[in-house]
């Protein structure tokens, strides 16, 4: 008697670890781990380049959250019994290069620059929301319940930051930029 197809309960963690789906999950974790670490380096520059105190504060508090996002990813790697390894994320590299260009192409102490910084930050947030949203679903599917919970915490913070930035742009910065 041979049984080739493992039952759901037979999908042991060892088999799961070797599955292509699990490898995809790990690749994506390494990608966002690199992205978050780069962001920790880039956010202080965006904070310093911004003029509005509210924007500067928003970026500052997101920097603190981002440091925690790095810690959480390290926790996820530990939970999976994997080494925390960063894999270069071309998308984040590009988004951060765009952010630098926006700062270079706008004058300091202007709301136009702040409006540009918000656009750059929101592009980053949307990339992260897409990444974490997918990671949470993959973790759930593979029954990595604790990993899913930890990743969902970060997902919520990215969404909140995105909303905060939208509010800031719509309530004052874009209007002031229009007057310049
Ligand atoms: Fe993040």
Report a brief summary of the structure.
This protein is mainly α and 180 residues long.
Q: What shape does the CA trace take?
A: elongated
Estimate the strand proportion.
under 5%
Radius of gyration over all CA atoms, rounded: 19 Å
CATH topology: Ferritin
Bound molecules: fe (ii) ion
Binned, the helix content reads over 70%
CATH architecture: Up-down Bundle
Low-confidence stretches: 1-10
The average pLDDT is 92
- SS element count, helices: 6
Order of helices and strands: HHHHHH
Class from helix and strand fractions: mainly alpha
- CATH class equals Mainly Alpha
Please describe what this structure looks like.
This protein has 180 residues and is an all-alpha fold. The protein has one domain (19-179): Up-down Bundle (Ferritin). 81% of the residues lie in helices and 0% in strands. It has helices at 13-18, 20-49, 53-79, 90-105, 111-141, 145-179. Helix 2 (20-49) packs antiparallel against helix 5 (111-141). The longest helix has 35 residues, at 145-179. It is elongated. The chain starts with 12 loop residues before the first helix and ends with a helix. The model is unreliable at 1-10 (pLDDT under 50). Bound molecules: fe (ii) ion. Residues 36, 66, 69, 128, 154, 158 line the site of fe (ii) ion. Fe (ii) ion is lined by residues 36, 66, 69, 128, 154, 158.
């Amino acid at each position: 008697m041979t049984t080739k197809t493992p039952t759901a309960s037979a999908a042991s963690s060892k088999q799961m670890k070797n599955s292509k789906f699990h490898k995809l999950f790990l690749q994506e974790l390494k990608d966002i781990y690199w992205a978050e670490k780069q962001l920790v380096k880039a956010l202080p520059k965006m904070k310093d380049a911004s003029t509005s105190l509210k924007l500067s504060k928003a970026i500052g508090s997101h920097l603190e959250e981002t440091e925690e996002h790095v810690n959480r990813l390290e926790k996820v790697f530990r939970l999976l019994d994997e080494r925390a390894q960063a894999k270069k994320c071309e998308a984040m590299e590009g988004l951060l290069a765009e952010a630098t260009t926006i700062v270079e192409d706008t004058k300091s102490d202007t709301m136009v620059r702040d409006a540009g910084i918000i656009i750059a930050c929101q592009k980053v947030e949307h990339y992260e929301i897409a990444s974490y949203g997918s990671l949470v679903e993959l973790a759930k599917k593979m029954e990595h319940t604790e990993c899913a919970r930890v990743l969902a915490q970060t997902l919520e913070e990215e969404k909140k930051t995105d909303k905060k930035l939208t509010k800031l742009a719509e309530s004052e910065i874009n209007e002031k930029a229009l007057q310049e």
